[in-house]
Amino acid sequence: MNIRQSRHRPWLVVASAVVPLGVAALLSVVREQVSTAAGVLVLALLVVAAASTGDRLCGLVAALSAGVFFDLFLTQPYGTLAVTNPDDVEALVLLFAVGVAVTELALWGRRQQAGSSRRLGYLDGVLSAAEKVAARDDDPGDLVALVTSELTGLLGLDGCRYAPVAPHLRAVVQPDGRVRSGERVLDVDRNGLPTDEEILLPVRHGGRNVGAFVLTTATKVRRPSAEQLRVAVLLADQVGVVVTRTGDHGRGSFAR
């Protein structure tokens, strides 16, 4: 949806500027029969429609356009940006304020929806892994492949591989989701995951390491949230359950 909206964004911005012009011009034809309040409401609806796209620029452009053309066509003296009636000034200010407020509310709603969708995706991944564990399959290869795929998508990785014996790496994901490099806890929110070294995600069970996933983010800085990193730890620990149960720490089919 974001790709489609980005492709059409120039047209949306142009429409946000032009449509209020056309509607205000039409209203000016019958302005003797249309009250100022009615004109404001009609133009406010256009602003709401632009804001509902979730694009801040569209909402702000529509609010500005509606305010300017309301002034030009529906307030005296007509055809100028001068406003002499205090009520018209108030209506103009309210029109722009409503446009800005609705735009921000629409963006907030989109962010909340996107966050809910992401959390649902995390849950699906964890549940899929848990189902594999519950199936008590003697071959953990499918689970490792599933978790590898889930981790790659969850953290936006360039590469992810399972290591039956954890290599010695400086950057390590801790059980609480924090990333430690040596003695230093990295600020992933600000600086992202390391791009110049591999990152170790231990596979744990019963308080001990039974393997690890080796994560690579070399081509782009990724800034996963603390929630995403905790989900990654949970996914890795699902593999720990199976590895411990089967006793396969590097000799089985999933040592890849």
Please write out the topology.
Blueprint (H helix, E strand, L loop, with lengths): L1 H28 L6 H16 L4 H19 L11 H49 L6 H15 L3 E5 L7 E3 L5 E3 L2 E2 L2 H4 L7 E7 L2 E9 L9 H21 L10
Parallel strand pairs: 2-5
Antiparallel strand pairs: 1-6, 2-3, 3-4, 5-6
Helix pairs in contact: 1-2, 1-3, 2-3, 2-4, 3-4, 4-5, 4-7, 5-7
Can you tell me about this structure?
With 256 residues, the chain is an alpha+beta fold. The C terminus is likely disordered. It has 7 helices and 6 strands. The protein folds into 2 domains: 112 residues, no CATH class; 109 residues, Beta-Lactamase (2-Layer Sandwich), CATH 3.30.450. A hairpin with a 2-residue loop joins strand 5 and strand 6. The chain is rod-shaped, with a radius of gyration of 28 Å. A 6-stranded mixed beta sheet has the order 1-6-5-2-3-4. It starts with a helix and ends in a 10-residue tail after the last helix. Helix 4 runs parallel beside helix 7.
Give a quick precis of the structure.
The protein is of the alpha+beta class. It starts with a helix and ends in a 10-residue tail after the last helix. It has 7 helices and 6 strands; from the N terminus they run αααααββββαββα.
